[in-house]
């Protein structure tokens, strides 16, 4: 294995650039280094002006998502050696406005997230609980997969629907809504129904499945969306066929 590799990094400085360009950096190729290590080497030793996001370096915070050779990846979990001999293209996540270099604006997602109410909802008439709302292991397993989302935005970057229509709620928001819809302690599924079942909710998804393919935590947003489509369809059918008291 060679001891050097080239990173071809997107640069965009809004105060001077009209569009993004690519700049190449020659860095050490070490078997234990991930792409984020390569970017940190550039920042520390070659070009202190490079801008990008990172925090935990452990695949937990989700902040270091970027496009690596055309695929949305967590750069803290993507090894340089997998792309030897290079060069490796490092670009900002697709489908988001670029703020600077590899930093994108995820404000659209942050504005949409509260719409699906991703928190436990209990009846306002319910007295304060004197005991815990305990769950069986099987009840927790119902939603556990969807609770693993780290908001890394890789699914939005890979989603062809979001690329064409940014009114779409998007994979992560819908998966997080399902996490609470499936929680035995939650009573808010009806409140989420109007938002999730709207034209820019689950029905906008064409089930390409790229969101699940790129998810680093195996959340399976596409599965969450299809599952909710079935629930919404059954609810609509019951409304159509059953008397009000029997729904």
UniProtKB/TrEMBL annotation:
Domain named 2Fe-2S ferredoxin-type: which ranges? Answer: 3-96
Class of this enzyme: oxidoreductase
Q: Which GO terms describe its biological process?
A: respiratory electron transport chain; tricarboxylic acid cycle
Q: What single Pfam family name could you report for this chain, choosing any that match? A: Fer4_8
This protein's UniProt keywords: 2Fe-2S, 3Fe-4S, 4Fe-4S, Iron, Iron-sulfur, Metal-binding, Oxidoreductase, Tricarboxylic acid cycle
EC numbers listed for it are: 1.3.5.1
Top-level lineage group: Bacteria
What protein is this chain from?
Fumarate reductase iron-sulfur subunit
One example of the protein's molecular function in GO is: succinate dehydrogenase (quinone) activity
Entry's family note: Belongs to the succinate dehydrogenase/fumarate reductase iron-sulfur protein family.
Name the source organism: Planotetraspora thailandica
InterPro entries hit by this protein: 2Fe-2S_ferredoxin-like_sf, 2Fe-2S_ferredoxin-type, 2Fe2S_fd_BS, 4Fe4S_Fe-S-bd, 4Fe4S_Fe_S_CS, Beta-grasp_dom_sf, Helical_ferredxn, SDH/FRD_Iron-Sulfur
Q: Does the keyword Ribosomal protein apply?
A: no
As cofactor, the record names:
[4Fe-4S] cluster; [2Fe-2S] cluster; [3Fe-4S] cluster
């Amino acid at each position: 294995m060679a001891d050097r590799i080239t990173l071809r990094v997107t640069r965009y400085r809004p105060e001077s650039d009209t569009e993004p360009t690519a700049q190449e950096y020659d860095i050490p190729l070490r078997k234990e280094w991930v792409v984020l290590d390569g970017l940190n080497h550039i920042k520390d030793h070659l070009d202190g002006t490079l801008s990008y996001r990172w925090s935990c370096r452990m695949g937990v915070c989700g902040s270091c998502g970027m496009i690596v050779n055309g695929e949305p990846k967590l750069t803290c979990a993507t090894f340089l050696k997998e792309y030897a001999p290079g060069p490796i293209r490092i670009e900002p996540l697709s489908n988001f406005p670029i703020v600077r270099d590899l930093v994108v604006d995820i404000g659209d997602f942050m504005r949409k997230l509260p719409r699906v109410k991703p928190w436990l909802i209990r009846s306002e008439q319910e007295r304060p609980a004197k005991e815990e709302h305990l769950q069986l292991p099987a009840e927790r397993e119902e939603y556990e997969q969807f609770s693993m989302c780290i908001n890394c935005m890789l699914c939005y970057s890979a989603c062809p629907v979001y690329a064409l229509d940014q009114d779409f709620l998007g994979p992560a928001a819908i998966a997080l809504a399902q996490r609470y819809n499936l929680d035995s302690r939650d009573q808010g599924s009806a409140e989420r129904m109007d938002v999730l079942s709207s034209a820019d909710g689950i029905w906008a998804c064409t089930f390409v499945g790229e969101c699940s393919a790129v998810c680093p935590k195996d959340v399976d947003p596409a599965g969450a969306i299809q599952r909710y489509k079935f629930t919404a369809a059954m609810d609509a059918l019951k409304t159509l066929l059953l008397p009000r008291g029997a729904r």
